[in-house]
Write a structure and sequence with these properties.
Helix content: 25-40%
Structural class: alpha+beta
Number of domains: 1
């Protein structure tokens, strides 16, 4: 991320469409990149896939820069036409004061 002066990366959380609750879950379908690096990440609603199943978008940031990831993810939520979430960046800011 330093090379390209990026604050965060945005990627799909799953690599294939979601399965229904009653179907078996494929653990290889989720994006585990952040788990390997120990970097902060947050998932936000990304709309719906075929069959009206929910999908998520993952924001992945620099190590020890959790607040930036929350701000970027929160900003995407306010500007996109997807289901709305709470104001989690304000809560994070208040807890670090």
């Amino acid at each position: 991320m330093d090379r390209f002066a990026l604050d965060a990366l945005v990627l799909p959380y799953r690599t294939i469409p979601p399965e229904r609750v009653e179907e078996p879950h494929d653990p290889e379908a989720t994006n585990q990149l952040t788990s390997h690096f120990g970097a902060p990440a947050v998932l936000v609603p990304g709309g719906y896939a075929q069959g009206n199943l929910p999908i998520a978008i993952q924001f992945f940031g620099r190590q020890n820069d959790d607040l930036t990831v929350l701000k970027i993810a929160g900003g995407s939520n306010t500007s996109a036409s997807i289901p709305k979430m709470g104001n989690f960046t304000q809560n994070a800011r208040d807890s670090t004061s």
